[in-house]
Every structure is written in C-alpha cells, then in structure tokens.
Predict the structure.
Amino acid sequence: MAKVFESAGIPTVVLTPLVDLAMQFGAYRIVRGLTVTSPLGDPEVSAEKEKTGRQALVVKALTALTKHITVPMSY
C-alpha cells in the first residue's frame, strides 16, 4: 500500500521489524520496529521506558517523512 501512496506523491513510512520484506514490497521509507509481536513497544520494560522508545520511533519516522528519496531506505 505504501508504494501506491508514494507513486501518487504522498510520502509514507512503514514501521516494521521485517525490513527486508518491506523493501521487497517496494516501501521507500522503512523504520525498523522492535519485534514482530510488538513493533512499537517492548512489554518487558517499564511503562516509562516503553514510552520513551515509542517516542524515539515516531521521531525517526517523522524525520524519514521529510527526506526526498527515490530508492528504498531503512532508518
């Protein structure tokens, strides 16, 4: 789906731990998530650490959105 939006001029970011798979499907901006079962969080850490980690992933994704790219990139 990201490839469809990108071809229409709408930038997208895919947050996933499966970077290779996202690249195979043509995603341009890919931010590596933590795990398959918890891509944006870590149930093994405190709520405060999890919040900080999620914020870092969102900042990384927003930064990736500002980049003009023509080939897949992993952040």
